[in-house]
Amino acid sequence: MWIFGRKNPSGFSASSTAEEVTQGIDGASSGIGTETTRVLALRGVHVVMAVRNTDAGEKVREAILKENPSATIDVMELDLSSMASVRKFASEYMSSGLPLNILINNAGATVPFTLTQDNIEMQFGANHIGHFLLTNLLLETMKSTALESQREGRIVNVSSLAHRHPYREGIRFEKINDESSYRMWSAYGQSKLANILHANELAKRLKEQGVEITSNSLHPGVIATNFLRQRTVQIKSRHSQNKKITGWVLLAKYSLVKKIAKYMGKNLQQGTATTCYVALHPQVKGVSGEFYSDCNLAKRSALAKDEELAKKLWDFSLSLTNTK
């Protein structure tokens, strides 16, 4: 649990929780997604949980309803590593006739080299391409909702400070599927950089169109539970890729990380605060193309502010998804 709490310009800090940053706001399958759903529903939002495992999603829904019987939550199937699944979800959502004010893109897979069903490196495919396609397919629904409700729409990309540590070139357009030079955490950094660049370019385009929809990105913080689970995957991957690193050294490092994360990492309530803040808080009204951390504006890397790189990524993503 993060115990340091110096407040910043917004009035919130790293130790603020999602409930605290949304207090007084109305109408607005696991881990961070579960807590985000709980708090949004608590503030009167009709939440549609897009999950790969609908059984797990239903259990989350039932648990939240026990705590908050007035919550409105739907569960729909979505696998961001499959474009077919993304298209199916978007089609079903649009057919439902539901409005869409807030879209939170929250995937954060961290895995050894694997390809998606569409033959794209998994982290780039699930963490960025899936979000890119989903956002494009639902954008007209968001525009209609913003116009009809006269209420600002918000698109929120959950990135990470890991965006500061991608491959040297930032986005490896020519080597997205190059297994021989693949580095798991560089690939993760690449996908998180892509989340920010996507939000930036989208914000620019929406502004040019005069649409009342904002697009921002954020770093939720190091969340102890998710961090430890992903660290296990990293250890297995490094052990298989680097024979010089012995198992006992890896386990010793893992033990140290567990101890550090227990006291220095955020809990789920703190880890979802920035997401809920950017999605709901009046202080963020009209703000677009920005990056947040600890419920305050934060600095991005030079690559994350590169407009030419953002435009190139947009065009590259369009070519992979075959969307206009």
From TrEMBL:
Pfam families per record: adh_short (PF00106)
SUPFAM superfamilies: NAD(P)-binding Rossmann-fold domains
Coiled coil segments of this chain: none
Family the entry assigns: Belongs to the short-chain dehydrogenases/reductases (SDR) family.
Record-given protein name: Short-chain dehydrogenase TIC 32, chloroplastic
Organism (species): Rhododendron simsii
